[in-house]
User: Which sequence fits this backbone?
């Protein structure tokens, strides 16, 4: 662990014995003065510790700068550890010197600040205890995802963010002017991963995807982090097994390694048991109808329908075999029932809904051309993608998992934008 400008982090100092000498560097989280003694709660990336500042130890001039320093000023403190039951955590630092490194006057974020204000000030709000916990949980979820892929024989592959054609339909494409030609921000790396399986077989990528989502919801961002995998020779069951392994590991890793962070958020999270229940789209429609949702066979599952279904289960649930009309052109029709495709969504519990979408792909050249035409798309745009069906095609499948939706579920967040450091939505591109 690097310790720049300090001998200990706050959480390390809390564990030291009476009389230990420390040099701490951090920010003023709280401050109060009682009878000429200043009590500062110093915050750093590991936690916080109380610092006691008195004139006899530090002299009048440093006492004055401590008195004048506003909340969130950055400071370097040298002092001695004292055990005192009145201090938070039973430990405090009696300061011998206190240097204000960066002043902070009238820190704008106060208790009770409104949601929009906090979003406008996300660059500062990241310092809050709750954002600290969320960022750590997100990092843990990402680490767990990589760890799972890397230890299960997947190779990571990177795909471009600037692309020539839609993966998930034209309605949510961000168009960019690419030296006078039309190009788009990627909606999914799927097609590139499909190309890579012919070399590496089992592949994954974790990178941003973009969707020009015109609706304001609690589960859509315009830029989100997409965890995607593709497996040569995998059928629909194979896809579900991989999703189950990945999501199960992400959930249990965060529950275990992010226990402190979940507690800060007041979140009780028990990682789900595997295997996850599997139901067909038909059964999902029945459940939704029974619960009064307005839905007909053939419609995609609406937010309300997904919510109704997900509330029926206390673990994530797979919903497979949606109507062909509800899904993108590349999904493999079910040979025993051509009106549905071999796709699967994973719905997270507690009403969260879809966190993963995937399935088996069409690997037959003629069928893929036919589906591209049926959807009114331009075969020319998919020329290289079709090539993959011309030279040694294999059955294969894959999926995409939305990192923010998954973090929202695990951390119990009310809105997807809480799950990303700097959210991008229809109304927000700053900070
Ligand atoms: O279901 P989607 O659209 O599927 C695909 O993009 C496939 N091409 C993935 C694949 O098979 N490789 O998106 C996959 C997941 C969704 O389940 C959701 O979790 C997330 O990506 N997602 C979004 N997350 C936040 N904001 C949005 N606007 C999202 N759109 C999709
Ligand atoms: Mg989907």
Assistant:
């Amino acid at each position: 662990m690097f310790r720049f400008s300090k001998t200990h982090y706050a959480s390390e100092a809390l564990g030291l014995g009476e009389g230990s000498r420390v040099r701490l560097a951090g920010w003023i989280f709280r401050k109060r003065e009682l009878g000429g003694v200043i009590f500062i709660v110093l915050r750093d990336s590991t936690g916080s510790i109380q610092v006691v500042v008195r004139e006899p130890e530090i002299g009048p001039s440093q006492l004055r700068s401590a008195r004048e320093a506003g909340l969130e000023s950055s400071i370097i403190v040298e002092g001695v550890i004292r055990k005192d039951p009145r201090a938070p955590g039973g430990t405090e630092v009696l300061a011998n010197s206190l240097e204000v490194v960066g002043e902070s006057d009238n820190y704008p974020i106060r208790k009770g600040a409104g949601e929009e204000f906090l979003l406008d000030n996300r660059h500062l709000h990241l310092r809050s205890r709750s954002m600290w916990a969320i960022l750590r949980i997100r990092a843990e979820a990402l680490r767990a995802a990589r760890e799972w892929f890397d230890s299960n024989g997947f190779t990571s592959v990177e795909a471009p963010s600037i692309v020539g054609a839609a993966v998930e339909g034209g309605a949510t494409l961000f168009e960019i002017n690419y030296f006078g030609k039309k190009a788009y921000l990627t909606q999914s790396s799927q097609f590139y991963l499909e190309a890579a399986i012919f070399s590496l077989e089992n592949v994954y990528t974790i990178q941003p995807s973009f969707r020009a989502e015109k609706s304001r919801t609690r589960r859509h961002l315009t830029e989100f982090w997409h965890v995607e995998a593709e497996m040569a020779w995998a059928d629909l069951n194979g896809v579900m097994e991989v999703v189950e392994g990945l999501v199960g590991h992400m959930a249990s890793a965060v529950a275990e390694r992010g226990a402190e962070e979940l507690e800060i958020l007041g979140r009780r999270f028990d990682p789900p048991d595997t295997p996850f229940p599997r139901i067909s789209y038909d059964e999902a429609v029945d459940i939704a109808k029974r619960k009064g949702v307005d839905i007909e066979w053939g419609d995609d599952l609406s937010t309300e329908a997904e919510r109704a279904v997900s509330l029926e289960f206390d673990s994530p649930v797979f919903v497979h075999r949606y109507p062909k009309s509800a899904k993108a052109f590349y999904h493999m029709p079910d040979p025993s029932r051509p009106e549905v495709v071999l796709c699967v969504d994973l719905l997270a519990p507690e009403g969260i809904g879809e966190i993963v979408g995937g399935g088996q792909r069409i690997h037959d050249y003629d069928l893929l051309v036919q589906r591209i035409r049926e959807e009114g798309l331009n075969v020319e745009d998919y020329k290289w993608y079709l090539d993959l069906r011309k030279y040694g095609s294999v059955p294969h499948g894959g999926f995409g998992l939305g990192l923010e939706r998954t973090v929202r579920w695990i951390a119990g967040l009310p809105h997807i934008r809480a799950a990303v450091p700097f959210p991008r939505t229809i109304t927000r591109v700053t900070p």
User: Anything to note?
Assistant: The longest helix spans residues 129-150. The CA atoms of residues 293 and 305 lie 6 Å apart.
